[in-house]
Design a protein that fits this description.
Rossmann fold; 34% helix
Length: 178
């Protein structure tokens, strides 16, 4: 997936479900193997390139440790890894690349909705930038990933077979993507 998006120097890379940081390490390996970075580009990669969200505190700590052991961050400044539900977070600054393997299945947490009336119901939160309300986590993440990208950004996402061929929200999202 990293080879498909071909990261370039000074590009921001996000993973809204980063786990232990596997995609970030894949980017580092790709960069080290394929690119010759200037001192400034190496500094950017070390301190500013990676942005992640992980809902589990212990897993986020493993991500930070993993990145540190591979030369990302230092003892004073860590990579931008947040311990929170990324679906509830709108990015102020869009990113160039998103790599993600979001959890599959129906949402066990709150459901993002485009309907302001549903927000008053328990278990819903508003995402005006989404195209469809769905409890299907992978469809919610797909909408979130598109919302994270700069206009000329790129994404590679692991999704179950046929998720975009579902009716309802799947059909709405498929048509928007096309």
């Amino acid at each position: 997936m990293v080879e498909c998006v071909q990261p370039k120097p000074n590009e921001t890379i996000a993973d809204p479900s980063c786990g232990t940081g596997g995609f970030f390490l894949g980017v580092l390996e790709y960069v080290q193997k394929n690119l010759k970075l200037s001192k400034g580009e190496m500094e950017f990669t070390k301190f500013h390139a990676f942005h992640g969200w992980e809902i589990e505190k212990s897993t986020a700590r493993l991500c930070l440790m993993n990145l540190y052991l591979h030369g990302i961050g230092d003892l004073k400044k860590t990579p931008d890894i947040h311990i929170k539900d990324s679906l509830k977070t709108r990015l102020e600054e869009k990113v160039k690349i998103v790599l993600a393997n979001p959890s599959f299945g129906n949402s066990s947490s709150d459901i993002p909705t485009i309907d302001e009336k549903q927000v008053n119901k328990e278990g819903f939160f508003l995402r005006k930038d989404f195209w469809a309300t769905t409890g299907n986590k992978q469809l919610a993440f797909l909408q979130h990933i598109v919302s994270m990208l700069k206009e000329d950004g790129r994404a590679a996402v692991v999704l179950p077979d046929n998720v975009l061929f579902e009716g309802g929200a799947g059909e709405i999202i498929r048509k928007k993507l096309l």
